[in-house]
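Researcher: Let's do a round of design. I'm pasting the structure tokens now; please hold your answer until I've finished.
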């Protein structure tokens, strides 16, 4: 039997506070929402959960708060089968939280309070050196300090470990620090924030991706929601079509894409097919409510892929 992929996630862990509403209140106005859901989230944790559910051995490097959410987050990782050796509580800090507001069409708006995620430093990456060096892939996001992101990208490059960076939430990026990065995976709004180029359609995405590739990144994948995704590199620009699903909540779809994509690549699936599979995995995640609990396990996904792939 082939060895299971080893995926390390250096990143965030939050508690998602999801409110479903028919409309948003005006300033000073109080209205009733339709329903509320509390769940485990954070882009890093979500990507780790997706990778684990897809069959990888997953190792989390993260920081949580000294509040009641901290131990619960660590216990959730353990219940998923994710290694928590390098997940630590930070005294005096809250855990990260993400209030999420979802409209009837499934579109979401998210406000992130980083809390203890901001305490994840380069020294913590060094403390996890052996785990990271032995991984098939390291996954990063922007819900931790940028100095830690850049340091980990350099670490991965130095040790020859594949590295995926999800620049979310979108913010200004020091592109020179990402030279040689294997995969840079923003969505449309994040790509626009980083480059200053509008991304309203596939052609816009192609031009935006070309700019990022010219900056020294090996591969750029722009996730386009209901329009699939765009895979780009030097001499490569491929629009990968979406799969039709009945979406109810798009929260975490990008994380589902990234976590599953890392696993498919590590299993040796050809790059373009790995993107197609990740498109389907992400699409399926929007058919349920919430983030991690809406992700498919590998058996359910493989059954869908056998029919749709």
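Researcher: That's everything. Go ahead.
Model: Designed sequence:
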């Amino acid at each position: 039997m082939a060895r299971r992929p080893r995926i390390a996630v250096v990143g965030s862990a939050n508690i998602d506070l999801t409110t479903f509403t028919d409309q948003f209140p005006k300033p000073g106005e109080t209205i009733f929402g339709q329903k509320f859901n509390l769940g485990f989230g954070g882009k890093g944790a979500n990507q780790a959960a997706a990778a684990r559910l897809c069959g990888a051995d997953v190792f989390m490097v993260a920081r949580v708060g000294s509040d009641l959410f901290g131990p619960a987050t660590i216990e959730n990782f353990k219940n998923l089968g994710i290694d928590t050796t390098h997940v630590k509580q930070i005294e005096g800090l809250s855990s990260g939280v993400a209030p999420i507001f979802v409209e009837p069409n499934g579109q979401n708006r998210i406000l992130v309070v980083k809390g203890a995620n901001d305490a994840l430093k380069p020294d913590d990456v060094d403390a996890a050196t052996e785990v990271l060096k032995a991984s098939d892939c390291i996954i990063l996001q922007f819900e931790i300090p940028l100095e830690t992101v850049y340091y980990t990208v350099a670490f991965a490059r130095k040790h020859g470990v594949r590295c995926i960076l999800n620049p979310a939430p979108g913010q200004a990026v020091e592109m020179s620090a990402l030279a040689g990065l294997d995969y840079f995976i923003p969505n449309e709004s994040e790509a626009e924030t980083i480059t200053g180029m509008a991304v309203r359609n596939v052609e816009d995405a192609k031009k935006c991706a070309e700019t990022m590739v010219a900056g020294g990144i090996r591969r750029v994948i722009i996730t386009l929601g209901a329009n699939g995704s765009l895979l780009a590199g030097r001499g490569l620009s491929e629009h990968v079509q979406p799969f039709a699903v009945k979406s109810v909540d798009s929260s975490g779809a990008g994380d589902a894409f990234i976590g599953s994509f890392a696993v498919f690549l590590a299993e040796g699936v050809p790059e373009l097919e790995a993107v197609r599979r990740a498109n389907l995995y992400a699409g399926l995640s929007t058919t349920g409510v919430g983030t991690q609990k809406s992700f498919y396990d590998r058996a359910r996904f493989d059954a869908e892929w056998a029919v749709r792939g």
